[in-house]
Amino acid sequence: MSDTTNTDITLNNGVVMPAIGFGVFQTPPEETKTAVAEALRVGYRHIDTAAAYGNERGVGKAIAESGIPRDEIFIETKIWISDFGYDETLHAFEKATGKLGIDTIDLLILHQPLTTEFDRTIQAYKALERLYADGKVRAIGVSNFMVEDLTELFTQTDVVPTVNQIELHPYFQQEEVVAVGREHGVLPQAWSPIGGVVNYEGGEGSPLQDPTIGEIA
What we know:
Layout: E1 8-10, E2 16-18, E3 22-23, H1 29-42, E4 46-48, H2 56-65, E5 74-79, H3 86-100, E6 107-110, H4 118-133, E7 140-143, H5 147-156, E8 163-167, H6 175-183, E9 187-191, H7 197-200, H8 211-216
Parallel strand pairs: 3-4, 4-5, 5-6, 6-7, 7-8, 8-9
Antiparallel strand pairs: 1-2
Helix pairs in contact: 1-2, 2-3, 3-4
Protein backbone atom coordinates (compact mmCIF):
# COMPACT_ATOMS: atom_id res chain seq x y z
CA MET A 1 0.00 0.00 0.00
CA SER A 2 1.09 3.57 -0.60
CA ASP A 3 2.44 5.94 2.01
CA THR A 4 -0.77 7.98 1.56
CA THR A 5 -2.87 4.98 2.55
CA ASN A 6 -0.79 4.52 5.67
CA THR A 7 -1.26 8.09 6.87
CA ASP A 8 -1.77 8.29 10.62
CA ILE A 9 -4.22 10.43 12.60
CA THR A 10 -3.67 11.58 16.17
CA LEU A 11 -6.81 11.25 18.29
CA ASN A 12 -7.83 13.77 20.95
CA ASN A 13 -6.05 11.75 23.68
CA GLY A 14 -2.76 11.55 21.77
CA VAL A 15 -3.19 7.98 20.53
CA VAL A 16 -2.07 7.53 16.91
CA MET A 17 -4.44 5.63 14.62
CA PRO A 18 -3.92 4.60 10.98
CA ALA A 19 -6.30 6.69 8.89
CA ILE A 20 -7.40 3.83 6.63
CA GLY A 21 -8.93 0.77 8.24
CA PHE A 22 -10.04 -2.62 6.96
CA GLY A 23 -13.61 -3.30 8.07
CA VAL A 24 -15.14 -6.75 8.30
CA PHE A 25 -18.84 -5.88 8.37
CA GLN A 26 -20.73 -8.60 6.44
CA THR A 27 -17.61 -10.76 6.24
CA PRO A 28 -18.73 -14.35 7.06
CA PRO A 29 -16.94 -15.69 10.16
CA GLU A 30 -15.41 -18.57 8.20
CA GLU A 31 -13.89 -16.13 5.68
CA THR A 32 -12.70 -13.47 8.12
CA LYS A 33 -9.33 -14.99 8.97
CA THR A 34 -8.37 -15.22 5.29
CA ALA A 35 -9.63 -11.72 4.49
CA VAL A 36 -7.84 -10.06 7.40
CA ALA A 37 -4.65 -12.02 6.75
CA GLU A 38 -4.60 -10.71 3.19
CA ALA A 39 -5.36 -7.18 4.34
CA LEU A 40 -2.42 -7.30 6.74
CA ARG A 41 -0.20 -8.77 4.02
CA VAL A 42 -0.86 -5.88 1.64
CA GLY A 43 -0.28 -3.24 4.30
CA TYR A 44 -3.38 -2.52 6.35
CA ARG A 45 -2.58 -1.94 10.01
CA HIS A 46 -6.02 -0.89 11.28
CA ILE A 47 -8.67 -3.62 11.57
CA ASP A 48 -12.26 -2.70 12.48
CA THR A 49 -14.64 -5.38 13.77
CA ALA A 50 -17.55 -5.62 16.24
CA ALA A 51 -19.24 -8.08 18.55
CA ALA A 52 -22.36 -7.87 16.38
CA TYR A 53 -20.41 -8.98 13.29
CA GLY A 54 -19.79 -12.39 14.85
CA ASN A 55 -16.26 -12.57 13.46
CA GLU A 56 -13.91 -11.28 16.18
CA ARG A 57 -12.33 -14.74 16.51
CA GLY A 58 -11.32 -14.73 12.85
CA VAL A 59 -9.77 -11.31 13.23
CA GLY A 60 -7.83 -12.51 16.27
CA LYS A 61 -6.55 -15.63 14.52
CA ALA A 62 -5.34 -13.65 11.51
CA ILE A 63 -3.51 -11.17 13.72
CA ALA A 64 -1.94 -13.91 15.84
CA GLU A 65 -0.65 -15.75 12.78
CA SER A 66 0.47 -12.66 10.84
CA GLY A 67 3.90 -12.41 12.42
CA ILE A 68 3.37 -8.67 12.76
CA PRO A 69 4.15 -7.26 16.22
CA ARG A 70 0.99 -6.52 18.19
CA ASP A 71 1.94 -2.88 18.71
CA GLU A 72 1.98 -2.34 14.94
CA ILE A 73 -1.68 -3.32 14.50
CA PHE A 74 -4.52 -1.04 15.60
CA ILE A 75 -7.56 -3.08 16.64
CA GLU A 76 -10.99 -1.49 16.89
CA THR A 77 -14.17 -3.24 18.01
CA LYS A 78 -17.64 -2.33 19.24
CA ILE A 79 -19.99 -3.10 22.12
CA TRP A 80 -23.49 -4.11 20.98
CA ILE A 81 -26.62 -2.71 22.65
CA SER A 82 -27.51 -6.05 24.26
CA ASP A 83 -24.38 -5.58 26.40
CA PHE A 84 -25.14 -2.00 27.45
CA GLY A 85 -25.05 -1.23 31.14
CA TYR A 86 -22.02 -0.77 33.39
CA ASP A 87 -21.30 -4.35 34.46
CA GLU A 88 -22.60 -5.77 31.19
CA THR A 89 -20.16 -3.65 29.18
CA LEU A 90 -17.23 -4.61 31.38
CA HIS A 91 -18.14 -8.24 30.73
CA ALA A 92 -18.46 -7.53 27.00
CA PHE A 93 -14.88 -6.24 27.03
CA GLU A 94 -13.74 -9.54 28.51
CA LYS A 95 -15.63 -11.43 25.81
CA ALA A 96 -14.10 -9.28 23.08
CA THR A 97 -10.52 -9.65 24.27
CA GLY A 98 -11.04 -13.38 24.69
CA LYS A 99 -12.26 -13.78 21.12
CA LEU A 100 -9.60 -11.47 19.71
CA GLY A 101 -6.87 -13.13 21.76
CA ILE A 102 -5.48 -9.86 23.05
CA ASP A 103 -5.16 -8.08 26.39
CA THR A 104 -5.64 -4.48 25.28
CA ILE A 105 -8.03 -3.02 22.69
CA ASP A 106 -6.77 0.02 20.84
CA LEU A 107 -10.19 1.59 20.26
CA LEU A 108 -13.41 0.37 21.90
CA ILE A 109 -16.66 2.07 20.93
CA LEU A 110 -20.39 1.77 21.53
CA HIS A 111 -21.96 0.41 18.33
CA GLN A 112 -24.99 2.71 18.46
CA PRO A 113 -27.03 4.56 21.08
CA LEU A 114 -29.85 2.72 22.79
CA THR A 115 -32.21 5.65 22.44
CA THR A 116 -35.16 4.02 24.24
CA GLU A 117 -33.02 3.41 27.34
CA PHE A 118 -30.36 6.05 27.08
CA ASP A 119 -29.39 5.61 30.73
CA ARG A 120 -28.02 2.19 29.77
CA THR A 121 -26.04 3.87 27.01
CA ILE A 122 -24.56 6.27 29.57
CA GLN A 123 -23.70 3.42 31.93
CA ALA A 124 -22.06 1.52 29.05
CA TYR A 125 -19.95 4.56 28.21
CA LYS A 126 -18.98 4.99 31.86
CA ALA A 127 -17.74 1.40 31.75
CA LEU A 128 -15.60 2.39 28.75
CA GLU A 129 -14.24 5.27 30.85
CA ARG A 130 -13.32 2.77 33.56
CA LEU A 131 -11.56 0.49 31.07
CA TYR A 132 -9.70 3.50 29.69
CA ALA A 133 -8.65 4.66 33.14
CA ASP A 134 -7.41 1.15 33.92
CA GLY A 135 -5.32 1.05 30.73
CA LYS A 136 -7.29 -1.84 29.24
CA VAL A 137 -8.26 0.21 26.20
CA ARG A 138 -6.15 2.91 24.60
CA ALA A 139 -9.06 5.00 23.33
CA ILE A 140 -12.85 5.01 23.57
CA GLY A 141 -15.60 6.33 21.34
CA VAL A 142 -19.07 5.91 19.90
CA SER A 143 -20.75 5.02 16.63
CA ASN A 144 -23.93 6.17 14.90
CA PHE A 145 -24.54 8.91 17.50
CA MET A 146 -26.60 11.84 16.26
CA VAL A 147 -26.46 15.43 17.56
CA GLU A 148 -28.89 14.84 20.43
CA ASP A 149 -27.05 11.66 21.45
CA LEU A 150 -23.67 13.39 21.50
CA THR A 151 -25.07 16.38 23.40
CA GLU A 152 -26.52 14.17 26.12
CA LEU A 153 -23.33 12.11 26.32
CA PHE A 154 -21.18 15.22 26.76
CA THR A 155 -23.29 16.38 29.71
CA GLN A 156 -23.29 13.05 31.58
CA THR A 157 -19.76 11.70 31.09
CA ASP A 158 -16.19 12.85 31.66
CA VAL A 159 -14.07 11.50 28.80
CA VAL A 160 -14.78 13.00 25.38
CA PRO A 161 -15.10 10.25 22.73
CA THR A 162 -12.14 10.07 20.38
CA VAL A 163 -14.34 9.11 17.42
CA ASN A 164 -17.94 8.94 16.27
CA GLN A 165 -18.08 6.29 13.56
CA ILE A 166 -20.94 7.20 11.21
CA GLU A 167 -22.07 6.60 7.67
CA LEU A 168 -20.14 9.24 5.78
CA HIS A 169 -19.52 9.48 2.05
CA PRO A 170 -19.97 11.98 -0.82
CA TYR A 171 -23.74 11.41 -0.94
CA PHE A 172 -24.33 11.53 2.81
CA GLN A 173 -22.12 13.99 4.65
CA GLN A 174 -24.01 14.49 7.96
CA GLU A 175 -22.54 17.97 8.30
CA GLU A 176 -24.31 18.89 11.55
CA VAL A 177 -23.24 15.71 13.34
CA VAL A 178 -19.67 16.17 12.12
CA ALA A 179 -19.63 19.84 13.19
CA VAL A 180 -20.93 19.17 16.72
CA GLY A 181 -18.40 16.39 17.17
CA ARG A 182 -15.51 18.48 15.91
CA GLU A 183 -16.43 21.29 18.35
CA HIS A 184 -15.56 18.85 21.13
CA GLY A 185 -12.58 17.22 19.41
CA VAL A 186 -14.46 14.11 18.27
CA LEU A 187 -13.10 12.71 15.02
CA PRO A 188 -15.74 11.70 12.44
CA GLN A 189 -14.80 8.17 11.44
CA ALA A 190 -16.48 7.08 8.21
CA TRP A 191 -17.97 3.65 7.77
CA SER A 192 -18.36 2.67 4.13
CA PRO A 193 -16.85 5.90 2.81
CA ILE A 194 -17.25 4.79 -0.83
CA GLY A 195 -21.01 4.56 -0.71
CA GLY A 196 -22.42 3.19 2.49
CA VAL A 197 -25.82 1.54 2.45
CA VAL A 198 -26.34 2.62 -1.15
CA ASN A 199 -23.73 0.11 -2.25
CA TYR A 200 -24.86 -2.66 0.12
CA GLU A 201 -28.40 -2.45 -1.25
CA GLY A 202 -27.20 -2.42 -4.84
CA GLY A 203 -29.30 0.63 -5.61
CA GLU A 204 -28.86 3.21 -8.28
CA GLY A 205 -26.91 6.34 -7.59
CA SER A 206 -23.84 4.75 -6.07
CA PRO A 207 -20.92 7.19 -5.69
CA LEU A 208 -18.77 4.60 -7.46
CA GLN A 209 -20.74 5.22 -10.66
CA ASP A 210 -20.80 8.99 -10.31
CA PRO A 211 -18.99 10.61 -13.29
CA THR A 212 -17.59 13.46 -11.19
CA ILE A 213 -16.22 11.16 -8.53
CA GLY A 214 -14.86 8.88 -11.24
CA GLU A 215 -13.07 11.80 -12.83
CA ILE A 216 -11.54 12.80 -9.50
CA ALA A 217 -10.42 9.21 -8.92
